[in-house]
Amino acid sequence: MSDSLNAMRRRSVLEPQWFVPALFVVALLPAVIGVAGTASDLLADTRFFGSNPIKAVEHYFGQWTLRFILATLCITPTRQLLGWNWLAKQRRTLGLFAFGYLMLHWLAYALLDVQLDWHDLTIDLAKRPYIMIGMAALLLMVPLAVTSTKGMIRRLGGQRWNRLHQLIYVISVLGVIHFFMAVKKDIGQPALFAAGLAVLFAFRVQRWRARRAA
Amino acid sequence: MLVRRTDPIGSSEITPEAHYLNRREFLAAAGLLGAGLTGVALPASASAAGRAQEPKALGKPYGLQSDDKPTPYKDVTSYNNFYEFGTGKDEPIENARGFVPRPWTVQVDGLVAKPASYQLEDFLKPSAVEDRIYRHRCVEAWSMVIPWRGIALADVIKRAQPTAAAKFVEFTTLMDPKRMPGQRSNVLQWPYVEGLRLDEALNPLAMLATGVYGRDLPNQNGAPLRLVVPWKYGFKGIKSIVRIRFVDKMPNSAWNLAAPQEYGFYSNVNPDVDHPRWSQAKERRIGEFSRRPTLMFNGYAEQVASMYAGMDLRKNY
Ligand code: HEM
């Protein structure tokens, strides 16, 4: 009994060999499907994304951005609960994927939806609070993306890097608020993301309390 | 106010059916090729066979611009806002599959000389059925061109004989959460209600539709009876109507109740008055890549603008 438990722990200390390749496949698949589906809809009228593919893919990549932000925030709790410390390295990978999906979301908006109409882009930014919030989240994510290399972590030092990357909490809240504001009246989906985020935050608050009490 | 002229165009200027089918067939073939290249599996509905069944766009065009052509049947009947059957635009076609819009009763009451409750068939019988191709503009900044089949709303009103006190018409959708699953959530206040000023309801453009593309209205499009007011945003076109009531006060409308700052009573299509969260200056026609400018009153200014003369359309949005 205790032998097998120890064996499990020992195994969980090491990253399984298949993990990184699997992660990349899973994380890239929505992007490949999104880009290929959009291309086939726009070039060949295939309705992969339905009747209004530009709106649909804009939403699709917005949702994937938020999913990856939440996945990034899942890493630390998973690590701590299961003792999978090797997961820590993948936090940056997932964060970079989140940023990649945000770029695709922004491209769907700026390139396909507004079609780089400079006037409309600036009006949106000046007049539409949900765009301002989305853009704030995007701008806050840029420094996180550019400091996601090993070299940058070394240059900044672990503590400063960690503090900077706590911005992800602000970004995730802005992202969920942006989602609430983008929907018409059907707040079910954003509420689901908000609930997920609340659980992830609660976990951290509880840890922090426990640490202070100790 | 600057109003673009919208001369009704002859049906000869609408792309002939054969031409149109050829284009779709070409696109479908290209689609399969594209799918092969990109490695994306396509839903069966996107196949060439699906395209071949495109029904004929019947009817006289009203207010169409020279580059307006009917939106394919598939899009008209699968991209729908009908919250009684779910909030996603692809949900109504699925969730309304089992809905049986028969038998159907329409109640006509309120400030009228002849209140009555009709079986749908009796309600429709006295009126001439017409096919008309209208532009359709959703408040969410997308648009279609739809060949409707139906009767003139004015016809129904004249038969009911509203009294002098009647100033507005209120419409109500069926309330039946068992058959309309969306009504089990409180995303809107049920039943859906809508209203028109009496003169708007009497406008010759206002119709009660019973079909699209010469076929019976699919459930997801508001079977068996829905309102069509092409100079207003799509949500004014209340679906699955069971009651038409004549009143002296401005009626409520479902979206006005849900978000009064965003959706007014009039909700006339107006490129100069933004929705608080997005611009209404442009729209994306379903099936097109670039957005096109939105027209005042959706291109029906000539027929409807006089009803709003002297009104501040910014306040009366
Ligand atoms: C971290 C940043 C962001 C996140 C997490 C995010 C996420 C989302 C999500 C989940 C949706 C709704 C999808 C749906 O309804 O299914 C959405 C919609 C949208 N977002 Fe973002 N977004 C972000 C930033 C931005 C930025 C920077 C822009 C543009 C400047 C933008 C523009 C839009 C637009 C135009 C919509 C569609 C609204 C509509 O339905 O018309 N977003 N976003």
How would you describe this structure to a colleague?
The complex is a heterodimer of chains A (about 210) and B (about 325). Chain A has about 210 residues and is an all-alpha fold. In chain A, about 85% of the residues lie in helices and about 0% in strands. In chain A, helix 3 packs antiparallel against helix 4, helix 6 (about 130-145) packs antiparallel against helix 9 and helix 7 packs across helix 8. Chain A is globular. The relative contact order of chain A is 0.09. The mean pLDDT of chain A is about 95. Chain B has about 325 residues and is α+β, with helices and mostly antiparallel strands. Chain B has one domain (about 60-310): Oxidoreductase, molybdopterin-binding domain (Sulfite Oxidase, Chain A, domain 2, Alpha-Beta Complex), CATH 3.90.420.10. Chain B is built from nine helices and 13 strands. Chain B has helices at about 15-40, 50, 75, 90-95, 120-125, 155-160, 200, 255-260, 300-305, and strands at about 60, 105-110, 115-120, 130-135, 140-150, 170-175, 195, 205-210, 215, 225-230, 240-245, 280-285, 290-295. The longest helix of chain B is centred in the N-terminal third of the chain and has 22 residues, at about 15-40. Chain B is globular. The two termini of chain B are about 15 Å apart. The interface of A and B includes residues 33, 51, 115 and 182 of A. The complex binds protoporphyrin IX containing FE. Protoporphyrin IX containing FE (HEM) binds next to helix 3, helix 4, helix 6 and helix 9 of chain A. The site of protoporphyrin IX containing FE has 21 residues of chain A, from helix 3, helix 4, helix 6 and helix 9.
Short summary of the structure?
With 214 residues, chain A is mostly helical. Chain A is built from 10 helices and no strands.
Please give the CATH architecture of chain B.
Alpha-Beta Complex
DSSP summary, beta strand count of chain A: 0
Poorly predicted parts of chain A = none
Count of spatially separate domains of chain B: 1
Structural class of chain B: alpha+beta
Oligomerization status of the protein chains: heterodimer
Outline of chain A: globular
End-to-end CA span of chain B:
15 Å
- Sheet having the most strands of chain B: 8 strands, mixed
Name the shape of chain B in a single word.
globular
Calculate Rg of chain B over CA atoms. 20 Å
